[in-house]
Design goal:
The chain is α+β, with helices and mostly antiparallel strands. Strands 3, 4, 5, 6, 7 and 8 form a 6-stranded antiparallel beta sheet that branches. It has 12 helices and 19 strands. Strand 10 and strand 11 form a beta hairpin. It starts with a helix and ends with a helix. It folds into 3 domains: about 90 residues, PDZ domain (Pdz3 Domain); about 150 residues, Alpha-Beta Complex (2-enoyl-CoA Hydratase, Chain A, domain 1); about 90 residues, PGBD-like superfamily/PGBD (Muramoyl-pentapeptide Carboxypeptidase, domain 1), CATH 1.10.101.10.
Length: about 450
Amino acid sequence: MALVKSKKIVLTIIISLVIGFLSGCEVKLPTFLTKPDVYEIFSILDQYYYKDLDFTIDDVETVKDIFERLDDPYTYMYVPNTRTIELDESYYGIGITITDDEQGLLIASTNPLAGLETKIYIGDIIKEVNGTTLSTLTYDEKTVLLSGDLGTEFALVIQRGDQLIETSVSVKEIPIQSVTSKMLDNQIAYIDINRFAGKTGLAFRTELALIETLNPNGLIIDVRNNGGGYLTAVVDIIAQFATGNEPVVTMHRMYDDHRTNYYGNTENIRKTYPIVILMNENSASASEVLAIALRENGGYPLVGTKTFGKFVYQTTFVLSKQGKEMYLNMTEGYWYSPNGNTVEGGINPDVLIEQSGLLFYEYPIYQQELILGDDITSLPALIEVLNLLEDTLPDRSEPFTIDDELVLKIRAFQTAQSLAVTGTLNYETTIQLIDYYRVLIKEVAYDYQLQATHQYMVNYEN
């Protein structure tokens, strides 16, 4: 009888719902049934986000609404293998960083180790992938067209200024080389950390051991333009220098008010050679953890310019209700230096050393042919390269327009490079200058900020 009664109750509920719908009464179903994707994201944020939410689930209709209400650039969803920090010292990909554009996908940067020098330029817009036009697609629909297994090839149509270019790229294994080193003049060692990937700590340990066999007179650790990465990687590097038994960084998880301390190696002995950390406005997150830890724990000077000031950290959740495999990168809390300080607003250097010369200017992008009288104030990098390569005529100091003297210098450059001698910054000439620019910016001789830091170390040692 009990079973029969239960069935009658269920049937009564169903009939009541049907009657409710038929009679015009609204029957409100719970959000986890009607909008499971929204419910999933909201529930995680409501429980684990580092701040109390100032809205309820009834205030948002879509996942996009949630992120707009948060207004947090560090909390977002992403497809696996598109925004993750690499675990190893290589990854499978094309070697480009892209942003959305109404025409397609804008090339924001390229990996110099991806072999794209003659194919892709910063500022290019991918308009077609394998015959599919991108302008009418969403960002997710665009990016999925560039995903594939190792060896997958993509035929691209690219808008480069006023030029339409056809080219192809493929998915391949691309080295990261998150840590590189060299010995500069006067036995000043130099180690560059371009990101904190999964094995960066080990890579740094290897490079440091190699450098120390050469008996350096000093060490420059460069974290310029390094936006961060894995905490474990940066703690591993700090542990190679930190002394004492105090924490080198503390993570404060807000939802349960939990603090986690990370320590160096209590058996460490302070290095016998001077060390400086070179940083700039694009040094963020893990780079700032390293910089302030070495300053407060070891008294090592920070040189360069003020850092970015990212004083929060994120954690990742695997999502299952978004229609496809997705991750949620979410701000969970704050981090603090050995002395309990935050880097909100950025870290000021102990010694201000600003960039100048070629690397001071923005990356040059071709837009259209520029002729006598045209404005070139946005292309100082090209004029700087022209001055470096063409030395038969006087250098031009940041001219505002193409004048008669600049025409002569362009013509001299075109003659020396066996280009069509037009006296204009046409496509071939501009691309040739950009190609030279991409080579020159890799050379220490044109990195005046590094050169000044090197001289500071020489004087420091003396």
